[in-house]
Sequence to fold (349 residues):
Amino acid sequence: MLWTGRRRWITVTVAMLVFVGGATLVYVGEQNMFALENESFTFESGANELVATLHLPTSNGPHGVVVFVPGDGPADVDTGILPVWESLADAGYATVQWNKPGVGGSTGNWLDQNMDDRADEVTDVLEALDERDDLDTDDLGVIGISQGGWVIPLVADRVDVDFFVAWSPAIVWTEQGAYLTERQLANAHADPELAARVLTADQEDRGNTYQDYLDWYASLDDDVVEFFSAASEDRWNFAARNNDLDAREMLQAMLDTAVLLLLGGHDDNVDVTDTERVSARSSADPASTSSTIAVAITTCSTTPESTSPSPPSSNPAASSPTVCSTTSKPSLRDPMTAERHPTTLDEMF
Fold:
Protein backbone atom coordinates (compact mmCIF):
# COMPACT_ATOMS: atom_id res chain seq x y z
CA MET A 1 0.00 0.00 0.00
CA LEU A 2 1.06 3.61 -0.49
CA TRP A 3 0.89 6.09 2.36
CA THR A 4 -2.43 7.90 1.91
CA GLY A 5 -2.64 10.07 5.03
CA ARG A 6 0.31 12.06 6.32
CA ARG A 7 -0.95 12.82 9.81
CA ARG A 8 0.07 9.43 11.23
CA TRP A 9 3.48 9.66 9.53
CA ILE A 10 3.92 13.14 10.97
CA THR A 11 3.10 11.87 14.46
CA VAL A 12 5.53 8.96 14.22
CA THR A 13 8.28 11.20 12.80
CA VAL A 14 7.85 13.79 15.55
CA ALA A 15 7.81 11.06 18.22
CA MET A 16 11.06 9.59 16.92
CA LEU A 17 12.76 12.98 16.51
CA VAL A 18 11.75 14.08 20.00
CA PHE A 19 13.29 10.91 21.40
CA VAL A 20 16.51 11.18 19.38
CA GLY A 21 16.98 14.87 20.11
CA GLY A 22 16.21 14.70 23.82
CA ALA A 23 16.88 11.10 24.74
CA THR A 24 18.97 11.75 27.82
CA LEU A 25 16.75 14.41 29.35
CA VAL A 26 13.44 12.71 28.56
CA TYR A 27 14.42 9.25 29.73
CA VAL A 28 16.06 10.34 32.96
CA GLY A 29 13.49 12.96 33.77
CA GLU A 30 10.37 10.84 33.36
CA GLN A 31 10.80 7.21 32.37
CA ASN A 32 7.09 6.36 31.94
CA MET A 33 5.45 9.26 30.16
CA PHE A 34 2.64 7.38 28.42
CA ALA A 35 0.25 4.58 29.29
CA LEU A 36 1.57 1.25 28.01
CA GLU A 37 0.58 -2.38 28.52
CA ASN A 38 2.82 -5.37 27.77
CA GLU A 39 1.70 -8.81 26.63
CA SER A 40 3.90 -11.86 26.08
CA PHE A 41 3.17 -14.45 23.40
CA THR A 42 4.96 -16.98 21.20
CA PHE A 43 4.93 -17.48 17.44
CA GLU A 44 6.57 -19.88 15.02
CA SER A 45 9.08 -18.91 12.37
CA GLY A 46 10.63 -21.71 10.35
CA ALA A 47 11.65 -24.42 12.80
CA ASN A 48 11.84 -21.99 15.71
CA GLU A 49 9.36 -20.93 18.37
CA LEU A 50 10.05 -17.34 19.37
CA VAL A 51 9.10 -15.53 22.58
CA ALA A 52 7.70 -12.07 21.85
CA THR A 53 6.38 -9.01 23.68
CA LEU A 54 3.61 -6.74 22.43
CA HIS A 55 3.58 -3.17 23.80
CA LEU A 56 0.00 -1.89 23.63
CA PRO A 57 -1.49 1.59 24.06
CA THR A 58 -4.18 1.75 26.73
CA SER A 59 -6.46 3.69 24.39
CA ASN A 60 -9.16 1.98 22.38
CA GLY A 61 -8.05 0.18 19.23
CA PRO A 62 -7.68 -1.00 16.65
CA HIS A 63 -4.04 0.11 16.82
CA GLY A 64 -1.51 0.24 14.03
CA VAL A 65 1.55 -1.96 14.49
CA VAL A 66 5.26 -1.12 14.50
CA VAL A 67 7.68 -4.04 14.28
CA PHE A 68 11.14 -3.64 15.83
CA VAL A 69 14.03 -5.40 14.07
CA PRO A 70 17.16 -5.21 16.27
CA GLY A 71 20.79 -5.24 15.22
CA ASP A 72 23.56 -7.77 15.68
CA GLY A 73 23.99 -9.93 18.78
CA PRO A 74 21.73 -11.98 21.07
CA ALA A 75 18.95 -9.40 21.26
CA ASP A 76 15.92 -10.01 23.48
CA VAL A 77 12.69 -8.18 24.27
CA ASP A 78 14.57 -5.91 26.66
CA THR A 79 16.82 -4.68 23.85
CA GLY A 80 14.25 -2.12 22.75
CA ILE A 81 14.14 1.48 23.91
CA LEU A 82 11.23 2.17 26.26
CA PRO A 83 10.73 5.88 25.45
CA VAL A 84 10.27 4.99 21.76
CA TRP A 85 7.61 2.40 22.56
CA GLU A 86 5.91 4.88 24.88
CA SER A 87 5.97 7.62 22.24
CA LEU A 88 4.55 5.28 19.62
CA ALA A 89 1.86 4.12 22.05
CA ASP A 90 0.91 7.76 22.61
CA ALA A 91 0.62 8.05 18.80
CA GLY A 92 -1.73 5.06 18.80
CA TYR A 93 0.69 2.33 17.72
CA ALA A 94 1.39 -1.04 19.28
CA THR A 95 4.99 -2.23 19.00
CA VAL A 96 6.26 -5.80 18.88
CA GLN A 97 9.68 -7.39 19.36
CA TRP A 98 10.95 -10.86 20.18
CA ASN A 99 13.87 -12.78 21.59
CA LYS A 100 16.20 -13.92 18.85
CA PRO A 101 16.53 -17.69 18.29
CA GLY A 102 18.40 -19.23 21.23
CA VAL A 103 17.77 -16.23 23.50
CA GLY A 104 15.34 -15.94 26.41
CA GLY A 105 13.34 -19.08 25.77
CA SER A 106 13.26 -18.83 21.98
CA THR A 107 14.43 -21.99 20.25
CA GLY A 108 17.16 -22.20 17.61
CA ASN A 109 20.36 -20.20 17.18
CA TRP A 110 20.43 -16.67 15.79
CA LEU A 111 23.93 -17.30 14.42
CA ASP A 112 22.43 -19.86 12.02
CA GLN A 113 20.44 -17.11 10.29
CA ASN A 114 20.80 -14.94 7.25
CA MET A 115 18.88 -11.71 6.66
CA ASP A 116 16.13 -13.54 4.72
CA ASP A 117 15.47 -15.63 7.83
CA ARG A 118 15.16 -12.47 9.87
CA ALA A 119 12.76 -10.92 7.34
CA ASP A 120 10.66 -14.08 7.50
CA GLU A 121 10.34 -13.55 11.25
CA VAL A 122 8.69 -10.19 10.58
CA THR A 123 6.08 -11.68 8.25
CA ASP A 124 5.49 -14.57 10.66
CA VAL A 125 4.90 -12.32 13.67
CA LEU A 126 2.49 -10.20 11.63
CA GLU A 127 0.59 -13.34 10.66
CA ALA A 128 0.32 -14.23 14.36
CA LEU A 129 -0.95 -10.73 15.23
CA ASP A 130 -3.38 -10.56 12.31
CA GLU A 131 -5.90 -12.60 14.30
CA ARG A 132 -6.36 -9.86 16.90
CA ASP A 133 -9.31 -7.47 16.70
CA ASP A 134 -7.47 -4.74 18.61
CA LEU A 135 -4.68 -4.47 16.00
CA ASP A 136 -4.67 -3.23 12.43
CA THR A 137 -1.70 -4.88 10.72
CA ASP A 138 -2.56 -2.99 7.51
CA ASP A 139 -1.38 0.16 9.30
CA LEU A 140 2.21 -0.99 9.54
CA GLY A 141 5.59 0.50 10.34
CA VAL A 142 8.94 -1.27 10.65
CA ILE A 143 11.98 -0.03 12.61
CA GLY A 144 15.33 -1.57 11.71
CA ILE A 145 18.36 -0.68 13.80
CA SER A 146 21.96 -1.26 12.68
CA GLN A 147 22.08 -4.77 11.14
CA GLY A 148 18.29 -4.58 11.00
CA GLY A 149 18.82 -2.05 8.21
CA TRP A 150 19.65 -4.98 5.91
CA VAL A 151 16.44 -6.73 6.97
CA ILE A 152 13.86 -4.01 6.34
CA PRO A 153 14.32 -3.80 2.55
CA LEU A 154 13.67 -7.55 2.41
CA VAL A 155 10.51 -6.97 4.45
CA ALA A 156 9.42 -4.42 1.84
CA ASP A 157 9.46 -7.22 -0.73
CA ARG A 158 7.19 -9.39 1.42
CA VAL A 159 4.67 -7.07 3.09
CA ASP A 160 2.95 -3.77 2.33
CA VAL A 161 4.56 -1.31 4.77
CA ASP A 162 3.39 2.27 5.34
CA PHE A 163 6.65 3.60 6.75
CA PHE A 164 10.13 2.53 7.74
CA VAL A 165 12.53 3.89 10.33
CA ALA A 166 16.12 3.02 9.42
CA TRP A 167 18.19 3.57 12.57
CA SER A 168 21.96 3.70 11.93
CA PRO A 169 21.90 1.21 9.04
CA ALA A 170 25.06 0.26 7.19
CA ILE A 171 25.24 -0.24 3.43
CA VAL A 172 27.89 -2.87 2.58
CA TRP A 173 28.82 -5.60 5.10
CA THR A 174 32.53 -5.74 4.20
CA GLU A 175 32.89 -1.95 4.06
CA GLN A 176 31.29 -1.64 7.49
CA GLY A 177 33.93 -4.03 8.85
CA ALA A 178 36.71 -1.95 7.31
CA TYR A 179 35.22 1.26 8.74
CA LEU A 180 35.01 -0.34 12.19
CA THR A 181 38.71 -1.21 12.04
CA GLU A 182 39.60 2.34 10.99
CA ARG A 183 37.62 3.78 13.89
CA GLN A 184 39.29 1.41 16.35
CA LEU A 185 42.69 2.61 15.11
CA ALA A 186 41.66 6.25 15.40
CA ASN A 187 40.28 5.81 18.92
CA ALA A 188 43.46 3.99 19.96
CA HIS A 189 45.62 6.78 18.49
CA ALA A 190 47.63 4.09 16.70
CA ASP A 191 50.84 5.27 15.09
CA PRO A 192 50.91 5.22 11.25
CA GLU A 193 53.17 2.17 11.02
CA LEU A 194 50.92 0.03 13.24
CA ALA A 195 47.80 1.34 11.52
CA ALA A 196 49.22 0.35 8.13
CA ARG A 197 49.93 -3.21 9.32
CA VAL A 198 46.47 -3.56 10.86
CA LEU A 199 44.75 -2.32 7.70
CA THR A 200 46.86 -4.68 5.58
CA ALA A 201 45.88 -7.60 7.81
CA ASP A 202 42.23 -6.54 7.60
CA GLN A 203 42.35 -6.81 3.80
CA GLU A 204 44.05 -10.21 3.71
CA ASP A 205 42.27 -13.31 2.44
CA ARG A 206 41.14 -15.28 5.47
CA GLY A 207 40.35 -18.43 3.53
CA ASN A 208 37.17 -20.36 2.92
CA THR A 209 36.97 -22.47 6.06
CA TYR A 210 36.98 -21.83 9.78
CA GLN A 211 40.38 -23.53 10.04
CA ASP A 212 41.71 -21.13 7.40
CA TYR A 213 40.44 -18.28 9.56
CA LEU A 214 42.13 -19.71 12.68
CA ASP A 215 45.41 -20.03 10.78
CA TRP A 216 45.14 -16.42 9.63
CA TYR A 217 44.34 -15.22 13.16
CA ALA A 218 47.31 -17.13 14.61
CA SER A 219 49.63 -15.48 12.09
CA LEU A 220 48.91 -11.94 13.30
CA ASP A 221 51.55 -10.00 15.23
CA ASP A 222 50.78 -9.43 18.92
CA ASP A 223 50.19 -5.69 18.49
CA VAL A 224 48.00 -6.27 15.41
CA VAL A 225 45.82 -9.02 16.87
CA GLU A 226 44.58 -6.61 19.55
CA PHE A 227 42.41 -4.97 16.87
CA PHE A 228 40.66 -8.22 15.91
CA SER A 229 38.28 -10.32 17.98
CA ALA A 230 38.62 -14.10 17.91
CA ALA A 231 35.44 -15.50 16.36
CA SER A 232 33.76 -18.73 17.38
CA GLU A 233 32.93 -21.17 14.59
CA ASP A 234 29.25 -20.19 14.80
CA ARG A 235 30.16 -16.51 14.51
CA TRP A 236 32.51 -17.17 11.59
CA ASN A 237 29.78 -19.09 9.78
CA PHE A 238 27.30 -16.28 10.43
CA ALA A 239 29.70 -13.72 8.93
CA ALA A 240 30.45 -15.96 5.95
CA ARG A 241 26.72 -16.46 5.35
CA ASN A 242 26.06 -12.70 5.28
CA ASN A 243 29.35 -11.41 3.93
CA ASP A 244 27.95 -10.37 0.54
CA LEU A 245 25.23 -8.07 1.91
CA ASP A 246 24.93 -4.84 -0.06
CA ALA A 247 21.99 -2.52 0.60
CA ARG A 248 22.49 -0.44 -2.55
CA GLU A 249 20.26 -2.71 -4.61
CA MET A 250 18.12 -3.81 -1.67
CA LEU A 251 16.98 -0.21 -1.05
CA GLN A 252 15.09 -0.19 -4.35
CA ALA A 253 12.31 -2.17 -2.65
CA MET A 254 11.63 0.81 -0.35
CA LEU A 255 11.32 3.50 -3.03
CA ASP A 256 7.55 3.89 -2.69
CA THR A 257 7.48 4.05 1.12
CA ALA A 258 8.03 6.86 3.62
CA VAL A 259 11.41 6.45 5.36
CA LEU A 260 12.87 8.17 8.41
CA LEU A 261 16.65 7.77 8.46
CA LEU A 262 18.15 8.21 11.95
CA LEU A 263 21.92 8.60 12.15
CA GLY A 264 24.47 9.41 14.85
CA GLY A 265 26.91 12.23 14.28
CA HIS A 266 29.74 10.15 15.82
CA ASP A 267 29.16 6.49 15.02
CA ASP A 268 32.12 4.13 15.41
CA ASN A 269 30.23 1.20 13.86
CA VAL A 270 28.53 2.71 10.82
CA ASP A 271 29.87 5.15 8.23
CA VAL A 272 26.88 7.49 8.43
CA THR A 273 28.18 9.72 5.64
CA ASP A 274 28.10 6.77 3.25
CA THR A 275 24.68 5.69 4.51
CA GLU A 276 23.20 9.16 3.98
CA ARG A 277 24.81 9.49 0.53
CA VAL A 278 23.56 6.12 -0.72
CA SER A 279 20.09 6.67 0.73
CA ALA A 280 19.81 10.08 -0.91
CA ARG A 281 20.89 8.60 -4.25
CA SER A 282 18.27 5.87 -3.97
CA SER A 283 15.50 8.36 -3.15
CA ALA A 284 16.45 10.40 -6.22
CA ASP A 285 15.93 7.39 -8.50
CA PRO A 286 13.40 8.22 -11.25
CA ALA A 287 11.64 4.95 -10.39
CA SER A 288 10.57 6.44 -7.07
CA THR A 289 7.02 7.78 -7.30
CA SER A 290 6.14 8.67 -3.71
CA SER A 291 9.15 8.13 -1.50
CA THR A 292 9.62 10.57 1.36
CA ILE A 293 12.97 10.43 3.15
CA ALA A 294 13.59 12.50 6.26
CA VAL A 295 17.09 12.45 7.77
CA ALA A 296 17.84 13.18 11.42
CA ILE A 297 21.46 13.26 12.64
CA THR A 298 22.08 13.35 16.39
CA THR A 299 25.44 14.48 17.78
CA CYS A 300 26.25 14.11 21.47
CA SER A 301 29.17 15.57 23.38
CA THR A 302 30.29 15.82 26.98
CA THR A 303 30.60 19.41 28.16
CA PRO A 304 31.20 20.98 31.57
CA GLU A 305 28.16 22.45 33.28
CA SER A 306 30.01 25.69 33.96
CA THR A 307 33.37 27.33 33.43
CA SER A 308 33.94 27.98 37.15
CA PRO A 309 36.73 26.01 38.85
CA SER A 310 35.65 22.80 40.54
CA PRO A 311 37.42 20.05 42.47
CA PRO A 312 38.58 17.05 40.41
CA SER A 313 36.05 14.22 40.23
CA SER A 314 36.71 10.50 39.99
CA ASN A 315 33.64 10.33 37.77
CA PRO A 316 33.93 12.91 34.95
CA ALA A 317 30.36 12.19 33.83
CA ALA A 318 29.11 13.50 37.19
CA SER A 319 30.28 17.03 36.37
CA SER A 320 30.21 16.76 32.56
CA PRO A 321 26.71 15.87 31.37
CA THR A 322 26.06 14.52 27.90
CA VAL A 323 24.39 17.07 25.66
CA CYS A 324 22.70 15.94 22.44
CA SER A 325 21.42 17.97 19.52
CA THR A 326 19.51 16.76 16.48
CA THR A 327 19.75 18.19 12.97
CA SER A 328 16.79 17.39 10.73
CA LYS A 329 17.64 17.17 7.05
CA PRO A 330 14.40 16.22 5.30
CA SER A 331 13.77 16.15 1.58
CA LEU A 332 10.60 15.48 -0.33
CA ARG A 333 10.05 13.90 -3.70
CA ASP A 334 6.92 15.36 -5.24
CA PRO A 335 4.95 12.38 -6.60
CA MET A 336 3.29 14.59 -9.22
CA THR A 337 6.37 16.19 -10.75
CA ALA A 338 9.07 13.70 -9.65
CA GLU A 339 11.23 16.64 -8.56
CA ARG A 340 13.19 16.83 -5.31
CA HIS A 341 12.64 19.86 -3.10
CA PRO A 342 14.81 20.64 -0.06
CA THR A 343 12.42 21.67 2.68
CA THR A 344 11.94 22.06 6.41
CA LEU A 345 10.02 19.57 8.53
CA ASP A 346 7.04 21.96 8.74
CA GLU A 347 6.97 22.41 4.96
CA MET A 348 7.40 18.72 4.39
CA PHE A 349 4.43 17.70 6.50
User: Anything to note?
Assistant: The chain has 14 helices and eleven strands. The first strand starts at residue 37 and ends at 45. Residues 186-242 form one domain.
